[in-house]
Amino acid sequence: MKKAYDIIIRPVLTEKSYDNLSSLRRYEFIVDKRATKTEIKLAIEEIFGVQVEKVNTLNQDGKMKRQGMHEGRRASVKKAYVQLKEGSKGIEFFDSLVVE
To answer: Who's near 19: CB < 8 A, 6+ residues apart?
Structure first.
């Protein structure tokens, strides 16, 4: 079984993700491409000590980039949108960033 810190790579910190924090209690993470929704749920619960209601995932292809005549792609990533249960506490890392 994979370790929790190998599954969750990093949080996504954008304006759109901040909007979902306060209203929907939905957090966004970059995760391992091979991780399943169940593994992501267990990893988030283990790392942050919260209760997860549901997990939605998205495989995002890397953007095409060009430099002169050379073309290539940025790395593809897998994102996870994690919705917390109603009675669960928030994730402290994100809560300190949100200004209400």
So the answer is: none
Detail the DSSP E strand segments found in the chain: 8-11, 26-31, 52-60, 64-67, 70-73, 77-84
pLDDT in tens, the chain (100 residues): 679 999 999 999 888 888 877 778 899 999 999 999 999 999 999 999 999 999 999 999 999 999 999 999 999 999 999 999 988 888 877 766 665 5
Let me know if domain 4-84 sits in CATH 3.30.70.330. yes
- Identity of the amino acid at 94: F
The tokens describing 21, both together, are: 């924090």
